[in-house]
């Protein structure tokens, strides 16, 4: 899990499509959030409510966060798991769980 | 709007205003410095009412239990009645030495009247008799007097006092220690990467010597960045310091310190890093080292926030 968090976070920070959303954030806190997110996507305990996801991303939505950025994150998540040798069917399951947060993340 | 009471003062806290700002607006005699929840100088006790957990983040458990909160990060929804904290949160100290390390940095040594436990690299808040408070990192080792390196700032109220008015023997108070940027035993063979700009050197000088003293066996790299050569204020001392690889770097001659560090250590994975000083440089370096493979949990950073 720790390895996945670091690989995923490095991808997020260097991806030109979405990295600007992470400028100026506290990296340690952000890493903890990403770990919680991956834990949830792996089917572990879900510490988020839909309302939490809405509140947490509301500022980003005003900055223009949209479907293309959400897609980019799901893509990077899939890439992270592929790098770690996770089989494709499991990656599909993880992506489906991530997908279930789309409406809340984008504030719809 | 919620009401904040402190002694004889009662005021309304406006939306988006911290409890500290409401108190200061009303003339309450509360010390403060960082206004960011780190220095601890605006700590007050909640007598009545309920404060959010955020206002107690980072405080000792015994202080939380006494209802202490940091007023600068306290945005309680309901009414609050506050009082000063007990005297035992601060330690009485005396100035025992004052020396200019350079034209820009004064070294202040303090002897605490009672025992003062700290780890090398942590910081304290120095409180003048009139209540003015500023945070400084500790450059000394546990068991020694407290050594602080104070950068002289134009119109800096504390630094100007230290330079011109403070005298040996003068009584001050010390709050702290705080901060988690210090050496911990374990993995003694791990290479250490200590990078600081300006007086960000102070905690690193303590951390480097602490690591040596605790038997660290891996290489200890200490990089001090300054704009000009006069800024390398411990150059001679560090060149003579055993067990530490000292590398001074100058912005004008060598370029930005993050580029110098990445040039020296293009593959930092496996190292343990301590980054102190200018907040922008600390953040940039933290991000770059992480992207180059350093584990985020192996990066200890202390960004020096200016007084608010």
Output the keywords.
heterodimer, A: 108 residues, mainly alpha, Globin-like, 6 helices, 0% strand, globular, B: 308 residues, alpha/beta, Ubiquitin-like (UB roll), Elongation Factor Tu (Ef-tu), domain 3, Rossmann fold, 3 domains, six-stranded antiparallel beta sheet, five-stranded mixed beta sheet, 8 helices
Secondary-structure topology with pairs:
The complex is a heterodimer of chains A (108) and B (308).
Chain A: H1 2-14, H2 27-41, H3 50-62, H4 67-83, H5 88-99, H6 102-105
Chain B: E1 3-6, E2 9-12, H1 19-25, E3 43-48, H2 61-65, E4 68-70, E5 80-84, E6 90-100, E7 105-112, E8 123-127, E9 133-137, E10 146-151, H3 157-164, E11 171-178, E12 192-197, H4 201-213, E13 220-226, H5 235-239, E14 245-250, H6 251-254, H7 257-264, E15 272-277, H8 279-291, E16 299-303
Parallel strand pairs in B: 1-5, 12-13, 12-15, 13-14, 15-16
Antiparallel strand pairs in B: 1-2, 3-4, 3-5, 6-7, 6-11, 7-10, 8-9, 8-11
């Amino acid at each position: 899990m720790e390895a996945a968090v670091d690989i995923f976070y490095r991808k997020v920070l260097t991806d030109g499509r979405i990295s600007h959303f992470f400028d100026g954030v506290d990296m340690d806190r952000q890493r903890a959030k990403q770990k919680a997110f991956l834990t949830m996507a792996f089917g572990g305990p879900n510490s988020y409510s839909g309302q939490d996801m809405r509140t947490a991303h509301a500022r980003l939505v005003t900055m223009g966060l949209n479907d293309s950025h959400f897609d980019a994150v799901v893509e990077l998540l899939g890439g992270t798991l592929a790098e770690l040798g996770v089989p494709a069917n499991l990656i599909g399951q993880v992506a489906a769980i991530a997908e279930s947060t789309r409406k809340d993340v984008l504030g719809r | 709007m919620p009401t904040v009471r402190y002694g004889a003062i009662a005021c309304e806290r406006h939306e988006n205003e911290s409890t500290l700002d409401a108190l200061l607006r009303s003339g309450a005699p509360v010390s403060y410095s960082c206004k960011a929840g780190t220095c601890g100088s605006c700590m007050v006790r909640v007598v009545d009412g309920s404060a959010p957990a955020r206002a107690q983040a980072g405080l000792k458990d015994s202080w939380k239990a006494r209802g202490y909160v940091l007023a600068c990060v306290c945005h309680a929804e309901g009414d609050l009645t506050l009082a000063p904290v007990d005297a035992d949160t601060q330690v009485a100290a005396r100035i025992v030495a004052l020396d200019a390390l350079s034209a820009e940095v004064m070294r202040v040594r303090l002897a605490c009247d009672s025992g003062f436990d700290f780890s090398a690299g942590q910081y304290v808040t120095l409180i003048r008799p009139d209540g003015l408070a500023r945070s400084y990192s500790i450059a000394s080792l546990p068991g020694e007097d407290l050594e602080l390196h104070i950068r002289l700032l134009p119109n800096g109220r504390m630094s100007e006092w230290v330079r011109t008015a403070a005298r040996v023997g003068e009584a001050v108070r010390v709050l702290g220690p705080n901060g988690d940027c210090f050496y911990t035993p374990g993995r003694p063979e791990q290479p250490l990467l200590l990078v600081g700009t300006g007086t960000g050197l102070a905690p690193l000088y303590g951390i480097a010597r602490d690591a040596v003293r605790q038997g660290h066996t891996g290489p200890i790299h200490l990089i001090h960045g300054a704009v000009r050569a006069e800024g390398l204020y411990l150059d001679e001392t560090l060149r003579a310091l055993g067990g530490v690889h000292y590398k001074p770097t100058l912005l004008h001659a060598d370029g930005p310190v993050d580029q110098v560090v990445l040039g020296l250590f293009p593959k930092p994975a496996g190292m343990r890093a301590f980054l102190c000083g200018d907040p922008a440089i600390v953040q940039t370096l933290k991000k770059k080292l992480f992207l180059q493979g350093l584990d985020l949990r192996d990066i200890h950073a202390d960004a020096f926030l200016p007084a608010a």
